[in-house]
Amino acid sequence: MTENHEREVTVPELVAQRAAQTPDAPAVAGGAQQLSYRELDQRANRLAHHLRALGAGPEAVVALCMHRSTEMVVGALGILKAGAAYLPLDPASPAERLAFTLRDAGVPILIISSVAGFPAEEELGLGATVIALDEGGRSLDSGNQRPPAIRPGGDNLAYVIYTSGSTGLPKGVQVTHASLMNLVRWHQHAFAITPADRATQVASPAFDAAVWELWPYLTTGASVHVPDEDTRMEPTRLRDWLVAERISVTFLPTPLAETIMTLDWPLDTGLRLMLTGGDTLHRYPPSTLPFALINNYGPTEAAVVATSGLVPPATGWTSPPSIGRPISGARAYVLDANQQPVMTGTIGELYIGGRGVARGYLNRSDVTAERFVPDPFTEIPGGRMYRTGDLVRARVDGELEFVGRTDNQVKIRGYRIELGEVEATLAAHPQVQQAVALAREDTPGEKRLVAYVVPAPGCVLEVETLRAFLLMHLPDYMVPGAFVCLAALPVTTNGKVDRNALPAPVLSRPTTADPAQEARTLIEQRMTEMVVGLLKVDHVGREENFFLLGGHSLLGAQLLVRVHEAFGVELPLRMLFDVPTVAGLSAEIERRLVSGLDAMSDEEAERLLA
Fold it and tell me: What is the pTM of this model?
């Protein structure tokens, strides 16, 4: 541990300073819950003392499996105050994936929400101590409200985030306090953050963007606001919420940002900055947009953000928006196959150096040595750089242009996916002999995940069976939107799978609606109209698969928001994967409406279904 890092202030200390300076200022708000800085700090301190009594401290990893909420922030801050590192998990992930992550990280303590619906401990097979926090904080309403007498150093772990793994197993990225503070300091300076700012927490806690959405603001004295699930997934509703809440800075994943910036915005909106990243940005903002759009790039291994840049209005631009320049404390190298710099305008692989580079992968020294290599361009002893696997081109103006990938890792709708993990999971199905996953963009701007499978001898594969199997093991964003069954995979002359020869998925659909596929009830009719509008197709049969028509989880979430608005019924996204047809969803809506309709008058029922 370097002497400089030992003296460096850390996130929990800065939040405590803000709590002492402005105790009554709003810190975090979500739904009916709002915490002042005093409340946030005291509740996090009580949790920290509880964790310390259980053995948590520097270098220990404590899991935090909670939905986006004020209590999730209390949990993360409490872990940091205990001197430990937090491992954020999504409660909606498959139980098997959660169990693997918890076992792989060797967590001694797991913090959950009392209302999150977390899988039973016997289902996960854990030996960890489980702490349940509720929204009112009553689960830890007593205890020491003073900060624990522990101060982690800059080289100690701050958080661990698991990313998709090329071998079929996720791997945990270890990020230190020093790397986190580099992100915090850069962000505060680059975007002139003040206590008057009102920011958002939109990303899933299991993704590193959520780290970025919290600590630069809570260490400044600004407030963080958490929209509900329906709001964050529906562009129009999210825009209205951002305006009504007087949000000044927000981060939105690239696909969502591309949609929301095309909407009409009031000129007097409080929003001054929209930050985006996570996927390739394809469009420039209109000149009428009343706020600035900032495009950002960075792998989890480089503490969220490595490059950043303002995206100017669309006029006169022919090339795609850049990913900006390296942030302060970061260095970007565009290198050839021999790790030598390439000329400006030449494509090379991007390597990231500087203070944001992570420690490496948890319990994976082999992969760490492969991806984190010595930095020959720095004078700092022991300096390392991370090999991103991304291909970029340095422009004459010094900004970087993203070109593609060198391996099988892809990003679809902002989610980082290792195709090898999807392939390994598919191959584990007893009826699958071979499997290949591919990200295709057969329609410009519409990238989707496609699986190619060769069935085992004597087996007949059904798409819904494969989809259900994958949903048991993978997050829904890693489940292919299309499946192609082949007698054999095409190969090159040297025997490798010829990915370029894999056919585009073909959906055989009639040019006009099949009478047998027409809606049979008022609910089916309304559902058909919703799906047609979302997918932008001419017609949809009552038994046609939403995902095979081009739907994905983001559009699915928007569909379920519209279902709630139209019928007052809340359906989980998982149900859309289980019954991805107008007929199936309509039957479930009708089932849930029956008791309510029975209690209504005929006029009320007709008005609901009109």
Answer: 0.80
